[in-house]
Specification:
alpha+beta, nine-stranded mixed β-sheet, two-stranded antiparallel sheet, 13 strands, elongated
């Protein structure tokens, strides 16, 4: 079994944050456990205090065979700080999945050889679906989640772990975690924070599923220029807020950050024959504004035809391309 050092565990956390498009700064000159980080993007930021251990199989004569645990070492007690979110995490290397535990349930002196447990089935569910809540009883919930769910876990840290207060609420959360369709108006949760969390997580799981399918279909390379370097997004062809938009893979394009922005701003588009087009009208506007620096290089790096996924069903649907070009004003 892979056993990671503390530095390697820290890299798992940082990678989860940066691959979600966020930035990380270290809040101490020499990172040491527990790690203190600042994660931020645009005007949203969170200060984190991260306790993390490897997850090991905890089964034995006295324990369930399907149990994994983190063994708390080097820490006598958790010390949350005002203005910070305190994360108590385990890392399951087999599926590259985190398990998060509620620090509020474990304040005070930890005692001799403490450990926190989660059942393997929830780690496996998180590997498949992105996220899984594990009801541990006594109103405590552990959360298993993939790295692409890390941001959402941090955002909703306290409400997520509060779902243990209601059996009916955690049933709703479990339904969402299984990627089962549930309408916002059908969410019967009285607590406003938990209801907001369910809506947010439901959207995030749909987004993550779409992103994973689209990037995998395109081999994690930009359809316009072929760039990889983990700088590629999953873009909707028909914009996500349009009534005819869909989360089908065939309504997606893998685009690097530059070409994603150019596509959204109608500087480039894709024709229904999969050709790549530069918007000459937009170029003329930029010339009049004297803002065409780099245009020659930009145009040179455009492929004549987009990268196409091997599976025909994953390729951009011609009708979706036509609708998208029409609503963006292309002729």
């Amino acid at each position: 079994m892979t056993h990671l050092s503390k530095d390697e565990l820290l890299r798992c956390v940082v990678k989860a944050i940066t691959e979600s498009g966020w930035n990380v700064s270290y809040l101490s000159s020499t990172p040491k456990h527990p790690f203190r980080l600042l994660m931020y993007r645009d005007d949203e930021s969170y200060r984190l205090k991260v306790y993390i251990w490897n997850m090991t199989h905890g089964g034995g004569r006295a324990r369930p065979q399907n149990e994994y645990r983190i063994q708390i070492t080097g820490v006598n007690r958790f010390e949350p700080m005002p203005g910070e979110k305190t994360l108590v995490l385990g890392w399951w290397p087999q599926g590259e999945v985190f398990a998060g535990f509620d620090v509020r349930r474990h304040l005070g002196v930890l005692g001799s050889s403490p450990s926190f447990q989660i059942r393997e089935e929830y780690l496996r569910k998180a590997y498949i679906n992105g996220f899984a809540p594990c009801d541990k009883g006594n109103r405590e919930v552990a959360i298993a989640f993939r790295p692409d769910f890390f941001i959402e876990y941090v955002r909703n840290l306290e409400p997520l772990h509060d779902f243990g207060q209601s059996a009916s609420d955690i049933a709703v959360l479990d339904t969402v975690a299984q990627n089962l369709v549930i309408n916002d108006q059908d969410i019967q949760i009285v607590d406003n924070a938990r209801r907001t969390t369910v809506v947010s997580i439901s959207k995030r799981l749909r987004d993550a599923n779409f992103r994973k399918r689209v990037l995998t279909a395109y081999g994690f390379q930009c359809a316009i220029c072929g760039l990889q370097l983990q700088l590629v997004d999953a873009a909707h062809i028909i914009p996500v807020n349009h009534e005819k938009s869909t989360d089908e893979t065939c309504n997606g394009l893998a685009l690097c950050a530059l070409h994603h922005r150019a596509f959204d701003q109608t500087l480039i588009t894709v024709g229904d024959d999969y050709s790549v087009w530069l918007n000459e009208m937009r170029v003329s506007e930029l010339k009049r504004a004297r803002r065409v620096g780099g245009l020659d290089v930009f145009e040179k790096n455009l492929r004549p035809l987009i990268v196409l996924p091997p599976a025909v069903s994953d390729r951009p649907h011609v009708e979706y391309i036509r609708i998208a070009n029409r609503i963006r004003g292309w002729k």
